[in-house]
Amino acid sequence: MPITLLRRERRFYELFDRQAGNVVAASRLLRTAFDDRIEAMPAHQAAIKDLEHAGDELTHEIIQTLHRTFITPFEREDIYALSSGLDDVLDYIDEIAETIILYGITDISAAAKSMAGLIVEAAVQIQGAVSKLESKSGVSEHGIEVHRIENVGDTESRRAIGELFRGGYDAVAIIKLKDFYTLLEDSLDRCEDVANVIEGIIIKNA
Amino acid sequence: MPITLLRRERRFYELFDRQAGNVVAASRLLRTAFDDRIEAMPAHQAAIKDLEHAGDELTHEIIQTLHRTFITPFEREDIYALSSGLDDVLDYIDEIAETIILYGITDISAAAKSMAGLIVEAAVQIQGAVSKLESKSGVSEHGIEVHRIENVGDTESRRAIGELFRGGYDAVAIIKLKDFYTLLEDSLDRCEDVANVIEGIIIKNA
Amino acid sequence: MPITLLRRERRFYELFDRQAGNVVAASRLLRTAFDDRIEAMPAHQAAIKDLEHAGDELTHEIIQTLHRTFITPFEREDIYALSSGLDDVLDYIDEIAETIILYGITDISAAAKSMAGLIVEAAVQIQGAVSKLESKSGVSEHGIEVHRIENVGDTESRRAIGELFRGGYDAVAIIKLKDFYTLLEDSLDRCEDVANVIEGIIIKNA
Fold first, then answer.
1. Positive or negative: CA dihedral A91, A92, A97, A98
2. Cα(B174)–Cα(B180) distance, rounded to whole angstroms?
């Protein structure tokens, strides 16, 4: 393959690596914020928002590179899907932080902390899968892990939501916290979507 | 076509037929559970969960077969989409049963029973479409039926949810039952997604 | 290209233009209804429902044309996705109007009016993009606008929902209005989905 084509290809891998790095960083900020005082949440949210903006710019750069590149390392629509998928995870992490402030949630439960920890784990697995996209070897293991993590999160969020109905919460609190847990679980679903896109790329290029 | 290739192709149709059978069986268990005493729900849910696990294994087998097969009866990504789609329907049916227990819903309304009946109907139509994937003839009729059933379910769930706001329900009951009806309707949406994947396969291979 | 093929191609563009016109018309009816007395809502909803039915027929005609046509102006699955996407926007606009009646919402807030205005804006941008699909020039600008409008709507709906938790609303009102604002925002998401499908078509045919 001519050097310039190779460089173009590598450019996509580089951009995806950076975006996966943003996702991991944002998930870690969220997890840290969940252990901090609730008054510090706006500051944490601002830091997450910065990463989300950086992610928007990277997404834009990936799409621009796609427009300028004739031969791509895998199908154009998959580059698009992977890029949107990673961007979605960032958006959800940002939305979680924003929702806490917007809904006036003042107490981060142990269940929520655990789910935020799962988002970090899933993000790290996605980063692992993305870093192996070029060699195409060992990618599936990360996908399997993401599915496992999402399953754990599903159980945890359902248990936490069920708990809300066992008494001790008024209707408004139930509305708020049910949305909050659902959002945490939805973020893991978005991680799973990314894992599915990557799985699809591997299947098509097997 | 050489015998071995033909056998490989047939394998996919067999696996999809079995998965569609699981979906029909799970939907029937749910419909039956809705007529039983509420105390029996955990036992019914356990039976549905077994089918859901069997479905997970079948999904895994389909993906494994996909990895080992070079020439597939239709596009690789459509095999993947159909397989995930059927799995999603199973997951939703399981989630409905689980939600009843988790939310402590004690009364299954006539509207919920009717919607569970629609899920059985849609599952049977999906099974019909899947069974005709190989011959590719008469598939569309099943798709049209799934869309019709989903439309009926949409109207029923919206009416049932509207009813919740006409008085007689406290806020917590509204939260629970709105989620429950939405989940029933979402299951029909997942059936429609499967019908759309099948419709796409037929369109591409017309 | 032979005249008949050209005519077939043009047929798709014509049908999509008409469907985009339906989306714009429905969005305008909704915006107008939001300024009218609440008692007039059923009449407005009936008019929107008529457009939604017309949209169903157009969708059917597009799919039928697809079945009869061997060479299509862009990939078969994208014709299918664009057609479903436009249909979804119509369905959502109809659902917004229906929900107001069903939930017994009696007061349309300034925030809801503003969001309905955004749906009109997004629909007009989609119409612009669809009208340029044949020439494939100047399409992206409309997509960028749809993304911008969806972002504004996202902020507005989140602010409106946050407002519900600042007091003055009982739990049932919160449930109703949170659904209502979410539905308005979801409609903008469906507009963004259409913009993404169009963006995908442009990327693949660049």
1. positive
2. 10
Helix C76-103 / helix C110-131 crossing angle, nearest 10 deg: 160
Question: Under an 8 A CB cutoff, do B203 and C67 touch?
Answer: yes
Taking the CA of residue B144 and the nearest CA in chain A, the distance in Å comes to 28
Give the Cα separation of C72 and C52 in Å (integer): 26
A58-117 pLDDT, tens per residue?
A: 998 998 888 888 788 888 889 989 999 999 999 999 999 999 999 999 999 999 999 999
The residue type of C174 is I
Q: Which chains touch B (3 or more CB pairs under 8 A)?
A: A, C
- Best to test chain C binding among B161, B201, B203, B205 (most C CBs inside 10 Å): B203
Using CA atoms, how far apart are residues C109 and C115, in angstroms rounded to an integer?
A: 10
| Residues in A touching C206 (Cβ below 8 Å) | 67
CB atoms within 10 A of CB C14: 13
Cα torsion angle, A94, A52, A27, A15, sign: positive
d(CA A57, CA C132): 26
The residues spanned by each domain of chain C are 3-204
Instruction: Give the span between the Cα atoms of B175 and B173, in whole angstroms.
Output: 5
Nearest CA in chain A to C200: A77
Based on its alpha-carbon atoms, the radius of gyration of chain B, rounded to whole angstroms, reads: 18
Q: What is the complex's ipTM, to 2 decimals?
A: 0.84
The chain C residue lying nearest A65, using CA atoms, is C203
State the nearest Cα–Cα gap between A180 and chain C, in angstroms.
13
Chain A positions contacting chain C at CB under 8 Å are 63, 66-67, 76-77, 80, 84, 98, 102-104, 170-172, 175-176
Given a contact cutoff of 8 angstroms between Cβ atoms, the answer to whether B200 and B141 are in contact is no
Any idea which fold C3-204 has? Methane Monooxygenase Hydroxylase; Chain G, domain 1 (1.20.58)
User: For B80-125, what is each residue's pLDDT tens digit?
Assistant: 899 999 999 999 999 999 999 999 999 999 999 999 999 999 999 9
